[in-house]
Amino acid sequence: xxxxxxxxxxxxxxxxxxxxxxxxxxxxxxxxxxxxxxxxxxxxxxxxxxxxxxxxxxxxxxxxxxxxxxxxxxxxxxxxxxxxxxxxxxxxxxxxxxxxxxxxxxxxxxxxxxxxxxxxxxxxxxxxxxxxxxxxxxxxxxxxxxxxxxxxxxxxxxxxxxxxxxxxxxxxxxxxxxxxxxxxxxxxxxxxxxxxxxxxxxxxxxxxxxxxxxxxxxxxxxxxxxxxxxxxxxxxxxxxxxxxxxxxxxxxxxxxxxxxxxxxxxxxxxxxxxxxxxxxxxxxxxxxxxxx
Length: 292
Fold this sequence. Notes:
three-stranded antiparallel beta sheet, disordered N terminus
């Protein structure tokens, strides 16, 4: 009878050790984003930092990885739509077609600045756009655009002339050679792109800003609604605690202010391809320059 408690403890000891064992830590799920055509993508440092923080704030474990191959936006979107596994997420300007093809996270990670455009021009023509006061004035000149960018259709729908290229780097070469007159770039891209192409005879126009409603979103495949929910949760938490705005300001605030947007002639364009679901009424999501 005296041995029974000892035997009971001996039976319980392995169970107690099992119950005390730490839970297995889930392995992060790989999340692949596309390698951009640009050799020095001006958006990438900001967007990948934002993406990493949003995923961390979502409470789910992901490990970011860049794709092996460089690819244009349409190629990346096709890979995501077909669930090929080579790419899981892309950031791109929204359009009706893109929101039909993929699942958007409708928080503009650029705060709408993708639709604020200043022009790269040839260095030998610094006053090219000084007298532009209307779309009719601008329509006399040709703009360069990538053939798969929504901006090309927006400019055309507003009566502007465009010449397209199948490669991003080719547009800078076309501008330098005088085959196009100007290359409209978002205010978060223009200065860094000019610096990364310093070997070319290019300059940044100081007179005009072209503006249309637009948004840069994260897009995922329609087979990944949970990923879209996680991203939205993380971004909303960052908006609520101010870390979203702080990161944006650190990367782009001074750049946008330095372009002196309020002092420029503004040409407002329509964006007929902007989906109705775009949260334009949520003012906190959108950038507004000082003194506007």
